[in-house]
Amino acid sequence: MNAPHPIEVKGLTMRYGALLIMEDLNFQVRRGEIFVIMGGSGSGKSTLLKHLIGLKAPAEGSILFEGEDFLEADAMTRKGILQKMGVLYQNGALWSGLTLAENVALPLEVYTELDARSIGEVVSLKLALVGLRGFEALYPSEISGGMRKRAALARATALDPEVLFFDEPSSGLDPITASRLDDLILQLRDSFGTTIVMVSHDLASIFKVADRALFLDIEEKTMTAMGKPSSLRDDPPSDEVLRFMTRSSETGPQEAPGDPRARTAPTPRKDP
């Protein structure tokens, strides 16, 4: 018998009151893949992410984690599901009054019974993995935007989650720093087999990291495409997908799926 997918979405409809956002969403996220949710502004990408991490209930349909319906599960099962997740929010969402080390330690203090010494060792390891060794005692306001994103990534991985969710990870970053963050995302998947679900409209990032991508069409109010980004660009199922995948400001119609940001990048802020 095949193991259930890490995430399976069945007949999902999303609403804010009477306002329909998206309907009839059906897809599965495969184990160990980087799955990108993409679409134009206002298409419901971040709303879908909120549904996937249990912050918003579906108007219709269901979302399964390893075959378990989060909303229908008992409290113990829900806690177990949450411990398998890590979330990197668009703005990082670090606590401003806590040091980087204290931010990363927080989920370990809440969800584990590790002693202070063990927590400190995990925190040091996680910060080192994202290139922030030596910055443990600094506060979020004392570091650059790229470093804050990396610190937030260290916190998101504190519990060694099986699934990581990223909301526009490259938002607000210069092209070089964004590309470095993409490298970290790939490293997480390749080194630890982490399943990654990422909301993004950044074509350079999508082409660089995504195994598959799903397109939310704001006009049709549903998903209209899913597949490898290069396939969606070269053989688009609709004009809207074609326009999205060939925006000349980022990749151009025939751009190879590399990372073109580096070729047109402005001088970035120094980001140790």
What does this structure look like?
The chain has nine helices and ten strands. It has 272 residues and is of the alpha/beta class. The protein has two domains: 32-55 and 162-272, 3-Layer(aba) Sandwich (Rossmann fold), CATH 3.40.50; 89-160, no CATH class. A six-stranded mixed sheet has the order 6-7-8-3-9-10. Strands 2-1-4-5 form a four-stranded antiparallel sheet, with helices on one face. Helix 3 packs parallel to helix 5 (145-156). It is globular and about 55 Å long. Residues 249-272 have low confidence and may be disordered.
| Helicity level | 25-40%
Number of E-type strands: 10
Number of domains: 2
State the end-to-end distance.
47 Å
Average pLDDT level: 86
| CATH topology annotation of the largest domain | Rossmann fold
CATH homologous superfamily title of the largest domain = P-loop containing nucleotide triphosphate hydrolases
| Spatial ordering of strands, largest sheet | 6-7-8-3-9-10
Instruction: Give the overall shape, derived from the CA principal axes.
Output: globular
